[in-house]
Amino acid sequence: MWIELPNLWIALFNALGIPIVHLAIAWWSHRRAVSGFDPGSLFFRPQPWETAGVIYRKVFLVPKWKGALPDAASWVSGFAKAKLKSREPEYLRRFIIETCRGEQSHWVQMVAVSAFIIWTPFPYALIILFYAALSNLPCILNLRFTRARLVSVLGAQGMKKRTAH
Hints:
- By secondary structure, the protein is mostly helical.
- It has one domain.
- It has helices at 7-31, 54-58, 62-65, 89-114, 124-164.
- Helix 1 packs antiparallel against helix 4 and helix 4 packs antiparallel against helix 5.
- It is elongated, with a radius of gyration of 18 Å.
């Protein structure tokens, strides 16, 4: 703990601040232009080890639990990602961009919530870190899984269009 505060203040800052941080970052992320999320960038593009999402399906078992995750995009009037509504290439491209937006939002939320340890005494700071990871990593895994699959589908559609000519 780097900042000394009375226990009541710590409890209030954490109980009120953490949900506010989550919502504020989600809102901020939703307000950013889609041009700020490049699915081809090193940070967002599917990596070879992700093998079109296979690692997320076989190692992390994402399809088994992803339905339990909330789609909070609707809380900030965002792009719903709970269900695929179309297979049209333009919709898939937008969906891919929105997975980038969601992933970045969750990485920023995880870091921001982790910062609450500066006034939270040990061992309670470990609870903050555990919460920050537990509330964001499953979402990040699901978003990367979804993006890897959508990029694969979009690529396959592109191949079908090229061979149909």
